[in-house]
Write a structure and sequence with these properties.
The chain is an alpha/beta fold. It has 3 domains: 1-50, no CATH class; 55-81, no CATH class; 82-112, no CATH class. It has helices at residues 7-15, 38-44, 53-59, 61-76, 93-101; strands at residues 2-3, 22-25, 47-50, 84-88, 108-111. The strands form 2 sheets. A 3-stranded parallel sheet has the order 1-2-3, covered by helices on one side. α5 links the parallel β4 (84-88) and β5. α3 (53-59) crosses α4 (61-76). The two termini are 32 Å apart.
């Protein structure tokens, strides 16, 4: 499971794990970091792993570079389809930021 939310969502997500699964902690958009109930992980033989791109570029730059190359290749081939919530002109950047602050956007907010 990829968990960018943390907080309450992490707790719910750990209940959904299969035996031996991993939950990847990507952030805490729900407003609070996850407080792991380790019994959920223990019972399911599961693990929680923190994922931060900055860590990869700092400590394993060759892997980060290979990942970026692979992502660029996938993008060039049209294999990436990000969820775009809203497209706004650059003049509406303040509105776009407010949408993010108010958590109104589901997906990316793109400025053109």
């Amino acid at each position: 499971i990829w968990d960018p939310l943390g907080g309450w969502a992490f707790d719910e997500a750990t209940r959904c794990l299969n035996w031996g699964a991993r939950i990847l902690i990507l952030g805490f958009l729900a407003g609070a970091p996850a407080l792991a109930k380790t019994n959920h992980l223990l019972i399911k033989g599961a693990s929680a792993v923190g994922v931060r791109l900055g860590g990869l570029t700092d400590f394993q730059p060759e892997i980060a570079a290979a990942n970026m190359t692979a992502l660029c290749d996938m993008a060039s081939a049209g294999k990436l389809n990000p969820m775009v919530s809203t497209v706004l002109p650059l003049a509406d950047a303040a509105k776009a930021l407010q949408m993010l602050i108010d958590r109104e956007a589901i997906g990316k907010v793109v400025l053109t």
